[in-house]
Write a structure and sequence with these properties.
With 314 residues, this protein is α+β, with helices and mostly antiparallel strands. The protein has four helices and 16 strands.
Length: 314
C-alpha cells in the first residue's frame, strides 16, 4: 500500500501488508500496516537526557482523531508487553514543525508530569497524572522535510470519555471540576510565575497534550513550541480563571500571586454563599465559604470579591 504522511511530504511503500484490527477510543476498528523497525527516544526529566532503544511497530494508515496541532493514528508497539501494545501515534499537522520542536513536545509533557507530582504531594483529593510520551523514529522510511526519518509522538491509548477542560487561550469548560483548573493556577505560583500549564485534557484523571506558556513577551520566540503564547497566554488564563475551593485549600493567591495585569474579572454578585462538593467523602459532603473566601471574581484594586453559587467537583 501507499501511506502518505505529513500532507504527502513522504510516502512509504510496503510490498507485504499484514493487517490487524483493534478497538479504539471511539470504538472503531483500524487496520495496521506492515511491521517496520523504529527507534524509541525516551526523555528523563531528572537527568535531562535522552535514551534510545529499538522496537518494531505497525502503524495504521488512517487517522482516527485530531487535535489542534496533531493528527492521531493507532499504532502497535510489538515489543511492549501483551495487552499494552496498542498505542497512539501523533503527527504534527504543520510542515513548519522542526525535529527539535517535536522532541520539545515530549520534554514539555515530562515537565508537566514533574509539576503534577509536586501538586499531588500536597494531598489533593484527586491527582493529576500525565501519561508517558516518547518519540518514535521510523528509520526505514525516506527522509522527510525535517531532514531525517519521520518522527511521531507515541503514548498509551486512553480508553474512556475524552474531555477537554481548558485550552491554551483562556477557554475553560463552564461546568468543570476543581482539580484541572487549580493545577494550572498552582503551576504559575510554584514556578514563581515563570510558566503556567494549560490545555488540560484527557480521560478521567489521566491527562495528555498539555501546553506550557512561558512568561516571556508574546513577540519573543516561543520556548515550548507554537502553542506557547507567552505572557499573553498567561493573561488569557487569568481572564477566565475563577479560584475554586481547591485553590483556597492550597492557599493559592486570588490573583495567582501575579503582578498587576493578571487580575481576574468580577462575576455577577449574589447573596448566596459558595457551596462545593467534597469528593473525598463521596457522600456529597459540602463546605460553605462566605463572600471573600476564594476570589470567585477578584475585583481589581483590592475592593473585595463577588460570589456565586455553583456546585464544584474535585
Amino acid at each position: 500500500f501507499r501511506f502518505d504522511l505529513l500532507h504527502g511530504a513522504m510516502a512509504f511503500y510496503a510490498h507485504s501488508v499484514h493487517s490487524s484490527t483493534s478497538a479504539g477510543i471511539l470504538g472503531r476498528c483500524a487496520e495496521f500496516g506492515a511491521p517496520e523497525q523504529a527507534k524509541v527516544h525516551t526523555y528523563n526529566d531528572n537527568t535531562k537526557k535522552w535514551s534510545v532503544d529499538e522496537t518494531t511497530v505497525r502503524l495504521s494508515p488512517t487517522r482516527f482523531a485530531e487535535g489542534t496541532n496533531r493528527y492521531c493514528y493507532k499504532i502497535l508497539d510489538l515489543t511492549a508487553p501483551s495487552g499494552q501494545q496498542e498505542k497512539v501515534a501523533k503527527v504534527a499537522k504543520s510542515l513548519k514543525e522542526s525535529r527539535k520542536e517535536t522532541f520539545t513536545a515530549v520534554v514539555m509533557q515530562k515537565r508537566c508530569q514533574r509539576l503534577a507530582e509536586r501538586f499531588n504531594a500536597l494531598g489533593t483529593p484527586k491527582k493529576m497524572n500525565f501519561i508517558d510520551a516518547c518519540i518514535i523514529e521510523l528509520v526505514q522510511r525516506p527522509i522527510d522535510h525535517t531532514g531525517g526519518p519521520p518522527l511521531l509522538i507515541m503514548e498509551p491509548l486512553l480508553q474512556g470519555q475524552y474531555k477537554k477542560h481548558s485550552n491554551n487561550f483562556g477557554f475553560v469548560d463552564a461546568e468543570d471540576r476543581c482539580t484541572p483548573q487549580c493545577f494550572s493556577h498552582f503551576t504559575f505560583e510554584h514556578t514563581n510565575q515563570q510558566m503556567i500549564v494549560v490545555d488540560i485534557q484527557g480521560v478521567g484523571d489521566l491527562y495528555t497534550d498539555p501546553q506550557i506558556h512561558s512568561n516571556i513577551p508574546a513577540s519573543a520566540p516561543p520556548i515550548w513550541g507554537e502553542g506557547d503564547m507567552g505572557d499573553e497566554g498567561i493573561h488569557k488564563f487569568f481572564e477566565t480563571h475563577r479560584c475554586n475551593a481547591l485553590c483556597k485549600q492550597l492557599g493559592l493567591s486570588s490573583r495567582g500571586g501575579s503582578p498587576v495585569g493578571y487580575m481576574m474579572p468580577v462575576t455577577t454578585s449574589t447573596t448566596a454563599p459558595l457551596t462545593t462538593t467534597n469528593c473525598r467523602s463521596g457522600l456529597g459532603f459540602t463546605s460553605t465559604f462566605s463572600s471573600g473566601s476564594c476570589g470567585l471574581g477578584y475585583s481589581g484594586g483590592g475592593l473585595g470579591y463577588s460570589t456565586r453559587t455553583a456546585p464544584l467537583y474535585y
